[in-house]
Specification:
7 strands; Glycerol-3-phosphate (1)-acyltransferase; alpha/beta; 196 residues
Length: 196
């Protein structure tokens, strides 16, 4: 219930704070689990991407956000779950697979953290491992403008248009590439959407 209340609320306020354009929604499966793989510009990304989907979407959030009991409770109601970014968090990987096996789509950020536009980033192998092990479709997503709506370090939201682009599903079920290479291939697909 809280998930969908938040979903409707954010869709309403977007008109005032971030006029949103969405492309490629036809690429989102109407049933079954899948992985959304997106670039990461702002804390708003895990909120904005799900409101573009008619499906309930789960996502990862850094474990420190769950230290506040009230906010942590709210995040869990939004289908978020914690991940320790400094280490290979096996528990988080198992939870991602469990949710996918329960037909709950999961949003992941291959870069692992927010990256400023134009800055170099290091892709994490985890998404490559999950894409291969589950064999599920990966939907590349490119988000732009969210770093202008809610810039890193800012406490206020600024009015600025945001764009979300969903690419065509890709699969690595029969891939013989190392997990890191799979993750890099996914990120290449994500970044290619910026040129469309």
């Amino acid at each position: 219930m809280i998930y969908w209340i938040t979903w409707v609320f954010v869709r309403l306020i977007r008109i005032f704070f971030f006029p949103l354009k969405v492309y490629g929604q036809k690429n989102i499966p109407s049933k079954g689990a899948f992985i959304l793989a997106s670039n990461h510009r702002s804390h708003l990304d895990p909120i904005i991407i799900p409101i573009c989907c008619a499906r309930r979407i789960s996502f990862l959030a850094k474990d420190s956000l769950f230290k506040n009991k009230i906010f942590g409770w709210y995040l869990k109601k939004l289908e978020a779950f914690p991940i320790k970014r400094e280490t290979s968090d096996i528990r988080a990987i198992k939870e991602i697979i469990r949710r996918l096996q329960s037909n709950l789509p999961v949003l992941m950020f291959p870069e692992g953290t927010r990256v400023r536009e134009g800055a170099e980033s290091e892709v994490q192998a985890g998404i490559g491992f999950i894409a291969f092990k589950t064999g599920l479709p990966v939907i590349p997503v490119y988000v732009s403008g969210t770093d202008k709506v809610f810039p890193p370090g800012s406490r206020t939201v600024k009015r600025y248009p945001a764009v979300v682009r969903f690419g065509e599903p890709i699969s690595f079920l029969k891939s013989d590439l190392p997990y890191l290479k799979i993750a890099e291939k996914i990120m290449e697909k994500v970044e290619s959407l910026a040129k469309e």
